Amino acid sequence: MSPLKADIEGAARILVGAGTTIALTGAGISVPSGIPDFRSESGLWSRFDIHEYGTLDAFRANPRKVWRLFHEIAATMDGAEPNPAHEALVRLEQMGLLAATVTQNIDNLHRKAGARNLIEFHGSAETLSCLKCGSSWPRAEAEGMLDEARIPVCRCGTVLKPDIILFGESIPVHALRDSFELASRADAILVVGTSAEV
After folding, report:
1. Cα–Cα distance measured from residue 122 to residue 106, given in angstroms and rounded to the nearest whole number
2. Which residues sit opposite 162 in a β-bridge?
3. Which of 133, 78, 128 is closest to 107 using CA atoms?
4. Annotated catalytic, 174?
5. Is 148 exposed, middle or buried (CB count within 10 Å of its CB: 0-12, 13-18, 19+)?
6. What is the rounded CA–CA span in Å between residue 74 and residue 14?
7. How far apart are CA 64 and CA 156, in angstroms?
8. Spatial separation of the C-alpha atoms in residues 70 and 159, rounded to whole Å
9. Has this prediction a pTM greater than 0.85?
10. Residue 158: what pLDDT?
């Protein structure tokens, strides 16, 4: 038996024998779907200075400028489809072998693949919110609220922000709480596409 096959069989035994297993996913799981990770040579941070575009302070100071980054994110995500890795996690969930997926990704591919118990740790680009009045809109609906520069504006007149976590923002309380609770009772954690350094 090859070392790789032995490793795969060993991992399968762990998954089958574990009482509770969760998956932790990062950018690497979506790369085969055509979404480069933010830090790669072709990633967004190679074209957008993280301090100018990737922080909550930058958005508050100049939301229209930061929307250049958001437009690029949306253009990359719009053509992406779940790949076999997303689908495999859904199958494990359907088989009762995966309690939940905790993802750092904002691309909605786990949900598109059919994941039911999903924690989007860094939020989702599928909804937008107003930092002034608190209104929230599905991205598709916000497409009808675009100004002449193709930037969605709330009915109160404020530029909307995608519900993704920028540097300087807190992880949503429910995502933090639920992730820690799941991790604390997990017998196994399947790590896919992340170095877990951030």
Report:
1. 6
2. 128
3. 78
4. no
5. exposed
6. 37
7. 16
8. 12
9. yes
10. 96
Q: What angle do CA 147, 152, 154 make, to 5 degrees?
A: 100
CA distance 47 to 41: 9
- The answer to whether 38 and 27 have CB atoms below 8 angstroms apart is yes
Rounded distance between C-alpha atoms, residue 87 and residue 97, angstroms: 14
Q: Tell me which residue of 109, 102, 115 sits closest to 172, measured CA to CA.
A: 102
pLDDT in tens, 21-76: 999 999 999 999 999 887 777 777 788 888 999 999 999 999 999 999 999 899 88
| Integer angstrom CA distances of residue 137 from 124, 144, 155, 197 | 12, 11, 11, 32
Helix or strand or coil: residue 130? coil
Question: Which residue is catalytic, options 51, 71, 110, 122?
Answer: 122
Q: DSSP of 89-123, one letter per residue?
A: HHHHHHTTS--EEEE---S-HHHHHT-SSEEETTE
pLDDT tens-place string over residues 136-156: 999 999 988 999 989 999 999
Alpha-carbon distance 105 to 80, whole Å? Answer: 13
- C-alpha 133/C-alpha 198 separation (Å) is 31
Give the CA dihedral 32, 137, 56, 156, nearest 10 degrees: 150
75-103 residue pLDDT tens? 889 889 999 999 999 999 999 999 999 99
The pLDDT > 70 percentage for the chain reads 99
